[in-house]
Design goal:
It contains 9 helices and 12 strands. The two termini are about 65 Å apart. It is an alpha/beta fold. Strand 1, helix 1 and strand 2 form a beta-alpha-beta unit. About 45% of the residues lie in helices and about 20% in strands. The protein has 3 domains: about 120 residues, 3-Layer(aba) Sandwich (Rossmann fold), CATH 3.40.50; about 60 residues; about 140 residues, Heat Shock Protein 90 (2-Layer Sandwich). It has a 5-stranded parallel sheet with strand order 2-1-3-4-5, with helices on both faces. A 5-stranded mixed sheet has the order 7-9-10-12-11, with helices on one face. A two-stranded antiparallel sheet has the order 6-8. The longest helix has about 70 residues.
C-alpha cells in the first residue's frame, strides 16, 4: 500500500511529550527538499528539529548544543556521512550521540559495516516510511530525555549530600566542642566535689551521725556516676572520629585477651567462656577491640547473677550472611525494648542492679556504622541475650 504524503500525515504526539522539555534532533543532508521532508515527518513528535546542510555545518551545530539523535545522509559532497560520523565520534561530548544514517542508496551499495564501526545505531533506506522513522527517532528522544532527568536528579542529590555533609560537619564540630567542655569545664568541679565529700567523711567522721554519712555517700555516688557518664561521652566522640585503618584481625585471640582481663578483675567468678577458633574480620584493630570489650563486658556483667554463667563467641552463616555473635545466659531483656539498647544513656536495668554509664552499646553501634556494617540483639527476659555483628 502506498504511503500517504508526509504533508498530510498527522499523528498524536507521544504521551506526555507536550508537557515535557523538547529535545534537539539534528537532520544533516545537502538536499533542501530531503531535509524538509525529514523535518515534516518528525513534526508530530513535537521536538526541536535542527537542520544542517553539510558535514561541516553539522559539526558547528554540535559545538553549540547536544542532540538526542542525529539523522545523517550518507552521500554528501566535500564530506560524506561516514567522515562526518567519524569526526562526531572524536568529540567527547558527542561520542555517544546516536547516529541514524539515512540514504537513498540500496543496501548493496552502502558500506553498512563501516557505518556500524563508526557508531551508527541504525540505517534507514529510501523510500523512508514515516511511521517507522518517527518510532525510531522517538525512542532515542525519550531515552535522551530520561537521561537528562536522571542527570538532573543526580545533580540535586549531589547538592543535597553536600548540604547534609556540611551540616553534619558543623554538628560534629559542635559536639566535639561540647565534649571538650564537658571533659574540662564540668568534670573537674565534679571531681573536686567528690574529693571534698571524701575529706568530710575522713576528717569529720566522728562528728557526723549515720544519716549525714549516708547523705555524703549518696552525693559521692551521684558525682561518680556523672563523672563516669562524662568519661563515656568523651570516649564515644574520641573513638568514633578519625580515619579507619582496616586490617585482618584475629577475633578469637582478641576475645580471649579481653576475657582474661575480665577474669583478672573478678577472680572469684566462675564463667564458662567458649570462643570459636579461627574467627577473623577486616576492621580497624583499635576500634574492634573497643567493640568486643564492650559487648563481651556486657555479657560478663549481665551474667553476674548466674551460678553457672556461660558466654559464647562464634560465627554463623544465615542465608549467606556471615555474622559474628556474642551469646550469654544472663538476665536478657524484653524484645519490645530492643530499640533502646544501642542508644546513649538508654538502660533496660537499674543502676543499682547493674552499674554502668549506658554508653557502651552506643559506642558499639557507632563503630559498626563507621565500618559500614550493622548490629542488632535478640533476647528474652531471664533467658540471656545474643548480639550480632556484621562488618
Amino acid at each position: 500500500m502506498k504511503e500517504r504524503a508526509p504533508a498530510h500525515f498527522e499523528e498524536p504526539a507521544m504521551p506526555g511529550s507536550a508537557a515535557a522539555v523538547k529535545v534537539d534532533i539534528l537532520v544533516v543532508d545537502d538536499d533542501d527538499t530531503k531535509r524538509y521532508a525529514l523535518k515534516t515527518i518528525l513534526d508530530p513528535l513535537r521536538e526541536n528539529v535542527v537542520e544542517a546542510a553539510s558535514g561541516s555545518d553539522a559539526l558547528r551545530q554540535l559545538l553549540r548544543r547536544d542532540f538526542a539523535v542525529v539523522l545523517l545522509d550518507v552521500r554528501m559532497p566535500m564530506m560524506d556521512g561516514f567522515e562526518t560520523a567519524q569526526l562526531i565520534r572524536q568529540r567527547p561530548r558527542s561520542e555517544l550521540t546516536p547516529i541514524i544514517f539515512v540514504t537513498a542508496l540500496d543496501k548493496a551499495e552502502t558500506d553498512m559495516g563501516r557505518g556500524y564501526e563508526l557508531g551508527a545505531v541504525d540505517f534507514v533506506f529510501a523510500p523512508v516510511v514515516p511511521s517507522i522513522l518517527r518510532a525510531k527517532v522517538g525512542v532515542f528522544a525519550e531515552l535522551y530525555r530520561a537521561q537528562q532527568e536522571l542527570r538532573r536528579y543526580r545533580t540535586q542529590l549531589e547538592l543535597l549530600v553536600q548540604e547534609r555533609t556540611t551540616a553534619l560537619t558543623a554538628i560534629n564540630r559542635e559536639l566535639e566542642a561540647f565534649s571538650y567542655s564537658v571533659s574540662n569545664d564540668l568534670r573537674a568541679p565534679l571531681l573536686a566535689f567528690d574529693n571534698l565529700n571524701e575529706k568530710l567523711l575522713q576528717d569529720y567522721s566522728g562528728a557526723l551521725d549515720e544519716r549525714a554519712k549516708d547523705y555524703l555517700e549518696r552525693m559521692r555516688t551521684a558525682s561518680r556516676r556523672m563523672t563516669s557518664a562524662f568519661d563515656g561521652l568523651q570516649t564515644l566522640f574520641r573513638l568514633t572520629s578519625g580515619e579507619i585503618r582496616r586490617e585482618d584481625i584475629d577475633i578469637s585471640a582478641m576475645s580471649a585477651e579481653i576475657v582474661d582481663e575480665l577474669r583478672a578483675q573478678s577472680p572469684d567468678r566462675k564463667v564458662d567462656v567458649g570462643i570459636a577458633e579461627g574467627l577473623t574480620n577486616s576492621a580497624d584493630p583499635r576500634l574492634m577491640r573497643v567493640l568486643l570489650a564492650n559487648v563481651i563486658g556486657n555479657a560478663w556483667k549481665f551474667t553476674s547473677k548466674r551460678a553457672a554463667a556461660t558466654i559464647e563467641v562464634g560465627r554463623e552463616i544465615v542465608d549467606g550472611d556471615s555474622r559474628l555473635f556474642i551469646r550469654d545466659n544472663g538476665v536478657g531483656f524484653d524484645m519490645i525494648q530492643a530499640h533502646k539498647l544501642f542508644g546513649a544513656f538508654q538502660r533496660l536495668h537499674s543502676q543499682s542492679e547493674f552499674p554502668g554509664a549506658g554508653i557502651g552499646l552506643a559506642t558499639v553501634r557507632r563503630i559498626v556504622n563507621r565500618h559500614g556494617g550493622r548490629c542488632w540483639a535478640e533476647g528474652a527476659v531471664g533467658e540471656g541475650a545474643t548480639f550480632y555483628l556484621v562488618m
